[in-house]
Design a protein that fits this description.
InterPro entries: Focal_adhe_kin_target_dom_sf (IPR036137), Focal_adhesion_kin_target_dom (IPR005189)
Order of helices and strands: HHHH
Shape: elongated
GO cellular component, one term: focal adhesion
Largest sheet: none
Organism: Callipepla squamata (Scaled quail)
Radius of gyration: 17 Å
Number of domains: 1
Domain Focal AT: 11-142
Strand content: under 5%
Protein name: Focal AT domain-containing protein
Structural class: mainly alpha
Helix content: over 70%
Distance between the termini: 54 Å
CATH architecture: Up-down Bundle
Number of strands: 0
CATH class: Mainly Alpha
Length: 149
């Protein structure tokens, strides 16, 4: 099983210096890539620390998004919150697949559940990028509203 390449479309053309949301999305994607590269040879007892790293990266990202929410236009909050909920359900799915991979260790199903773990992790990374896109759109909206016409 090979991990899928994560190659999302480019982000908005914004200044990324001191952009904590961007940094944390990148951190989450890196955690997913690292987990994906290590999962195949790893014994089941190593799954939990790998998934925990992804979970911690997600928690950091969501906290950063919560901090930046008040400065973004109120009309964009619902879409951002929906993207956050999706990420939480993606993590729950990853944890569920990890438990199944552990439960079916040394059976013919183990590889299938490892593959499903990779698929769930990939979805999480893609949805994190989508969250960044939603926030970027909110930022662009805020910038355009701030400019005098």
């Amino acid at each position: 099983i090979k991990p899928q390449e994560i190659s999302p479309p480019p982000t908005a053309n914004l200044d990324r210096s001191n952009d904590k949301v961007y940094e944390n999305v990148t951190g989450l994607v890196k955690a997913v890539i690292e987990m994906s590269s290590k999962i195949q040879p790893a014994p089941p007892e190593e799954y939990v620390p790998m998934v925990k790293e992804v979970g911690l990266a997600l928690r950091t990202l969501l906290a950063t998004v919560d901090e930046s929410l008040p400065v973004l236009p109120a009309s964009t909050h619902r879409e951002i919150e929906m993207a956050q909920k999706l990420l939480n359900s993606d993590l729950a799915e990853l944890i569920n697949k990890m438990k199944l991979a552990q439960q079916y260790v040394m059976t013919s199903l183990q590889q299938e559940y490892k593959k499903q773990m990779l698929t769930a992790a990939h979805a999480l990374a893609v949805d994190a990028k989508n969250l960044l896109d939603v926030i970027d759109q909110a930022r662009l909206k805020m910038i355009s509203q701030a400019r005098p016409h």
